[in-house]
Amino acid sequence: MNIDPRPLYTRATEQIAALVATVRPEQLAGPTPCAEFDVRTLLSHIAGGTRRIAVVGAGGDGMAVRPFLDGVEDDRWSAAYDEVRTEVQKSWADDARLDALVTVPWGEAPGRIALSGYVMEAVTHTWDLSESLGRPLALDPELAEFALGIARRVLPDERRDDEDLPFDSAVPAPEGADAHGRLAAYLGRRPLS
Fold first, then answer.
1. Which of 53, 59, 164, 169 has its CA 20 to 30 A from that of 103?
2. For residue range 67-76, what is the model confidence (pLDDT) as tens digits?
3. What are 21-35's pLDDT values in tens digits?
4. Cβ contacts of residue 48 below 8 Å, gap of 6+?
Protein backbone atom coordinates (compact mmCIF):
# COMPACT_ATOMS: atom_id res chain seq x y z
CA MET A 1 0.00 0.00 0.00
CA ASN A 2 1.71 3.14 -1.20
CA ILE A 3 -1.09 5.66 -0.74
CA ASP A 4 -0.68 9.04 0.93
CA PRO A 5 -3.48 8.91 3.53
CA ARG A 6 -3.06 12.53 4.66
CA PRO A 7 -5.75 13.99 2.36
CA LEU A 8 -8.18 11.27 3.47
CA TYR A 9 -7.32 11.86 7.11
CA THR A 10 -7.88 15.59 6.65
CA ARG A 11 -11.28 14.93 5.08
CA ALA A 12 -12.13 12.56 7.93
CA THR A 13 -11.26 15.22 10.50
CA GLU A 14 -13.31 17.82 8.63
CA GLN A 15 -16.27 15.44 8.73
CA ILE A 16 -15.80 14.87 12.46
CA ALA A 17 -15.43 18.59 13.12
CA ALA A 18 -18.71 19.33 11.32
CA LEU A 19 -20.45 16.63 13.36
CA VAL A 20 -18.93 17.70 16.68
CA ALA A 21 -20.19 21.24 16.00
CA THR A 22 -23.77 19.89 16.07
CA VAL A 23 -23.48 18.38 19.58
CA ARG A 24 -25.75 20.04 22.13
CA PRO A 25 -24.91 19.89 25.85
CA GLU A 26 -28.01 17.81 26.61
CA GLN A 27 -26.72 15.10 24.24
CA LEU A 28 -23.42 14.57 26.07
CA ALA A 29 -24.78 11.94 28.48
CA GLY A 30 -26.57 10.05 25.69
CA PRO A 31 -25.74 6.48 24.59
CA THR A 32 -23.48 5.53 21.70
CA PRO A 33 -22.99 2.31 19.72
CA CYS A 34 -19.85 1.86 21.88
CA ALA A 35 -21.65 0.46 24.93
CA GLU A 36 -18.96 1.64 27.35
CA PHE A 37 -19.06 5.26 26.08
CA ASP A 38 -21.61 8.01 26.38
CA VAL A 39 -21.34 10.90 23.88
CA ARG A 40 -18.99 12.87 26.16
CA THR A 41 -16.63 9.89 26.54
CA LEU A 42 -16.76 9.24 22.80
CA LEU A 43 -15.79 12.87 22.12
CA SER A 44 -12.97 12.52 24.64
CA HIS A 45 -11.74 9.39 22.86
CA ILE A 46 -12.01 10.94 19.39
CA ALA A 47 -9.96 13.95 20.52
CA GLY A 48 -7.51 11.84 22.53
CA GLY A 49 -6.91 9.42 19.65
CA THR A 50 -6.34 12.39 17.37
CA ARG A 51 -3.78 13.80 19.79
CA ARG A 52 -2.07 10.38 19.90
CA ILE A 53 -1.61 10.21 16.11
CA ALA A 54 -0.37 13.82 16.15
CA VAL A 55 2.37 12.80 18.59
CA VAL A 56 3.21 9.78 16.42
CA GLY A 57 3.46 12.02 13.35
CA ALA A 58 5.84 14.32 15.21
CA GLY A 59 8.12 11.37 15.98
CA GLY A 60 7.04 11.04 19.60
CA ASP A 61 5.82 8.09 21.63
CA GLY A 62 2.12 7.95 20.85
CA MET A 63 1.72 4.99 23.19
CA ALA A 64 2.56 7.32 26.07
CA VAL A 65 -0.45 9.48 25.14
CA ARG A 66 -3.70 8.54 26.83
CA PRO A 67 -6.31 8.07 24.08
CA PHE A 68 -8.79 10.34 25.87
CA LEU A 69 -8.78 14.12 26.26
CA ASP A 70 -9.75 15.07 29.79
CA GLY A 71 -10.92 18.34 31.27
CA VAL A 72 -12.83 19.68 28.27
CA GLU A 73 -15.77 21.86 29.23
CA ASP A 74 -19.10 20.85 27.72
CA ASP A 75 -19.22 23.83 25.37
CA ARG A 76 -15.58 23.44 24.18
CA TRP A 77 -15.60 20.10 22.38
CA SER A 78 -15.60 21.68 18.94
CA ALA A 79 -12.66 23.96 19.78
CA ALA A 80 -10.76 21.15 21.52
CA TYR A 81 -11.16 18.89 18.50
CA ASP A 82 -10.07 21.64 16.10
CA GLU A 83 -6.90 22.13 18.15
CA VAL A 84 -5.86 18.47 18.03
CA ARG A 85 -6.69 17.98 14.36
CA THR A 86 -4.52 21.02 13.55
CA GLU A 87 -1.69 19.30 15.47
CA VAL A 88 -2.05 16.27 13.18
CA GLN A 89 -1.77 18.33 10.01
CA LYS A 90 1.42 19.96 11.28
CA SER A 91 3.03 16.78 12.59
CA TRP A 92 2.44 14.78 9.38
CA ALA A 93 3.43 17.59 6.96
CA ASP A 94 6.88 16.10 6.24
CA ASP A 95 6.62 13.41 3.52
CA ALA A 96 9.38 11.42 5.24
CA ARG A 97 6.98 10.63 8.12
CA LEU A 98 4.96 8.42 5.74
CA ASP A 99 7.80 5.92 5.42
CA ALA A 100 9.19 6.20 8.94
CA LEU A 101 8.48 3.24 11.20
CA VAL A 102 6.14 4.26 13.99
CA THR A 103 4.53 2.47 16.90
CA VAL A 104 0.75 2.48 17.21
CA PRO A 105 -1.55 0.34 19.39
CA TRP A 106 -1.54 -2.55 16.92
CA GLY A 107 2.26 -2.65 16.51
CA GLU A 108 5.04 -1.12 14.44
CA ALA A 109 4.19 0.06 10.93
CA PRO A 110 5.26 2.59 8.32
CA GLY A 111 3.65 5.97 8.94
CA ARG A 112 1.34 5.70 5.93
CA ILE A 113 -0.11 2.44 7.28
CA ALA A 114 -0.46 3.87 10.78
CA LEU A 115 -2.22 6.99 9.54
CA SER A 116 -4.48 4.85 7.32
CA GLY A 117 -5.46 2.93 10.45
CA TYR A 118 -6.35 6.21 12.09
CA VAL A 119 -8.50 7.11 9.08
CA MET A 120 -10.38 3.88 9.80
CA GLU A 121 -10.70 4.78 13.48
CA ALA A 122 -11.82 8.35 12.74
CA VAL A 123 -14.44 7.27 10.21
CA THR A 124 -15.72 4.54 12.53
CA HIS A 125 -16.09 6.92 15.44
CA THR A 126 -17.73 9.44 13.13
CA TRP A 127 -20.41 6.83 12.44
CA ASP A 128 -20.69 6.15 16.19
CA LEU A 129 -21.17 9.84 16.92
CA SER A 130 -23.57 10.31 14.02
CA GLU A 131 -25.73 7.44 15.26
CA SER A 132 -25.68 8.90 18.77
CA LEU A 133 -26.85 12.30 17.53
CA GLY A 134 -29.62 11.00 15.29
CA ARG A 135 -27.65 11.27 12.01
CA PRO A 136 -27.67 15.07 11.66
CA LEU A 137 -25.29 15.22 8.65
CA ALA A 138 -24.62 13.16 5.53
CA LEU A 139 -21.34 11.24 5.84
CA ASP A 140 -18.72 10.85 3.10
CA PRO A 141 -19.14 7.40 1.46
CA GLU A 142 -15.65 7.45 -0.10
CA LEU A 143 -14.07 7.74 3.35
CA ALA A 144 -16.18 4.84 4.58
CA GLU A 145 -15.16 2.65 1.61
CA PHE A 146 -11.48 3.42 2.26
CA ALA A 147 -11.89 2.70 5.98
CA LEU A 148 -13.73 -0.57 5.26
CA GLY A 149 -10.88 -1.66 2.97
CA ILE A 150 -8.36 -0.94 5.72
CA ALA A 151 -10.51 -2.75 8.30
CA ARG A 152 -10.76 -5.85 6.13
CA ARG A 153 -7.02 -5.81 5.62
CA VAL A 154 -5.90 -5.33 9.23
CA LEU A 155 -8.79 -6.86 11.21
CA PRO A 156 -9.74 -10.28 9.87
CA ASP A 157 -12.36 -11.98 12.05
CA GLU A 158 -9.85 -14.53 13.37
CA ARG A 159 -7.92 -11.71 15.10
CA ARG A 160 -10.98 -10.38 16.95
CA ASP A 161 -10.62 -12.72 19.93
CA ASP A 162 -8.01 -10.39 21.47
CA GLU A 163 -9.78 -8.76 24.42
CA ASP A 164 -7.57 -5.65 24.06
CA LEU A 165 -8.86 -5.10 20.53
CA PRO A 166 -11.60 -2.44 20.57
CA PHE A 167 -13.62 -4.08 17.79
CA ASP A 168 -16.05 -6.97 18.09
CA SER A 169 -16.56 -9.69 15.51
CA ALA A 170 -18.44 -8.67 12.41
CA VAL A 171 -22.23 -8.63 12.52
CA PRO A 172 -24.58 -8.70 9.54
CA ALA A 173 -25.03 -5.26 7.99
CA PRO A 174 -28.63 -4.06 7.89
CA GLU A 175 -30.31 -4.53 4.51
CA GLY A 176 -29.46 -1.63 2.22
CA ALA A 177 -26.69 -0.37 4.53
CA ASP A 178 -24.48 2.35 3.09
CA ALA A 179 -20.68 2.19 3.28
CA HIS A 180 -20.68 3.58 6.82
CA GLY A 181 -23.22 0.99 7.92
CA ARG A 182 -21.17 -1.82 6.33
CA LEU A 183 -18.02 -0.52 8.06
CA ALA A 184 -19.80 -0.36 11.40
CA ALA A 185 -21.16 -3.89 10.99
CA TYR A 186 -17.73 -5.22 9.98
CA LEU A 187 -16.36 -3.76 13.21
CA GLY A 188 -19.14 -5.33 15.29
CA ARG A 189 -21.30 -2.26 15.77
CA ARG A 190 -25.05 -2.02 15.54
CA PRO A 191 -27.20 1.07 15.00
CA LEU A 192 -28.86 2.47 18.12
CA SER A 193 -32.29 2.52 16.49
1. 169
2. 999 999 999 9
3. 999 999 999 999 988
4. 65, 66, 67, 68, 69
